[in-house]
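Tokens in:
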């Protein structure tokens, strides 16, 4: 009897632990908090690679909360999203009350953080170079047009429905967000430093291509739904296998070449170059794995996880650069 109860207790504890672990994983990945972590990690990677001062804690808090709120917006019902039923959309349906609390809280944190930063450094804003204002304007415009947030009477563009362009826009916004915005923020915070524009552009292209490949992979999970909508994404236009062979792998190679060009230009040693190459090798391997159908958590954990690996490798590799 004792052994039977012990077995039941053990199974009960394992079941409870598994259930709690699953809830934590779903909260982090379905709730887009992992995306916020990626934004911070990639921004820190940029500062490390350029030997720049790190941004303020308030800035990192702002860029953590903003993407979480932004990506969650599509699942709140405000946009009347017609996304197919899947584990992620079902999670949001069962956590509507939680989302109604977290979204205003995230917005409040973003507003307070931005106001405090502007109040402290408002004078530096007027001394930003014109090119920085153009970059900020392009990032803001692309972010707004992605969800079609402007009034329909003003403009009807919704970049989520632009087929091929969609993935490149997402990659461009992310590349700008983590490769250019931290430099602009440093100028605002009075930590401006001279940067080599060639290196900055190489890092931007590397991140742009990396995030574009990531976005194309995510389009693959919506292949059937996009096909029914006649939305001409790469997967719908070329099919899964051709997209992997002729789109994902070449773009991954372009990103790797940008990385190799940047590291060679800066005379990195073979150890640093090898470490920086790890995420691109993983990206090629995962791209090849897309020949098979994957569930939503594979995309959120494995594919987005490569982005975190990229940031960590970029940071770690700088310890071998002198």
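Residues out:
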């Amino acid at each position: 009897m004792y052994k039977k109860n012990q077995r039941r207790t053990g199974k009960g504890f394992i079941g409870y632990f598994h259930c709690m672990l699953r809830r934590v994983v779903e909260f982090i990945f379905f709730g887009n908090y992992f995306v916020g972590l990626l934004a911070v990690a990639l921004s820190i990677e940029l500062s490390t690679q350029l030997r720049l001062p790190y941004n303020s804690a308030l800035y990192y808090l702002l860029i953590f909360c903003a993407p979480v709120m932004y990506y969650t917006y599509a699942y709140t019902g405000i946009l009347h999203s017609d996304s197919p039923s899947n584990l992620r959309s079902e999670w949001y349906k069962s956590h509507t009350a939680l989302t109604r609390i977290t979204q205003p809280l995230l917005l409040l944190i973003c507003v307070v953080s931005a106001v405090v930063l502007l109040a402290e450094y408002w004078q530096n804003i007027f001394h930003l170079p014109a090119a920085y204002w153009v970059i900020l304007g392009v990032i803001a415009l692309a972010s707004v047009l992605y969800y079609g947030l402007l009034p329909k009477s003003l403009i009807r563009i919704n970049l989520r429905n632009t087929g091929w362009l969609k993935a490149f826009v997402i990659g461009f916004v992310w590349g700008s967000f983590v490769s250019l915005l931290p430099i602009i923020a440093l100028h605002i915070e009075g930590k401006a430093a001279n940067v080599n524009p060639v290196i900055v552009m190489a890092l931007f292209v590397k991140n742009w291509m990396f995030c574009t490949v990531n976005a194309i992979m995510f389009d693959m999970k919506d292949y059937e739904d996009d096909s029914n909508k006649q939305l001409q994404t790469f997967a719908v236009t070329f099919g899964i296998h051709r997209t992997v062979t002729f789109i994902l792998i070449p773009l991954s190679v372009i990103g790797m070449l940008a990385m190799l060009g940047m590291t060679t230009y800066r005379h990195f040693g073979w150890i640093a170059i090898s470490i920086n190459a790890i995420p691109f090798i993983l990206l090629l391997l995962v791209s090849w794995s897309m020949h098979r159908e994957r569930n939503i958590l594979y995309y959120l954990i494995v594919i987005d996880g490569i982005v975190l690996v990229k940031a960590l490798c970029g940071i770690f590799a700088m310890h071998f650069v002198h």
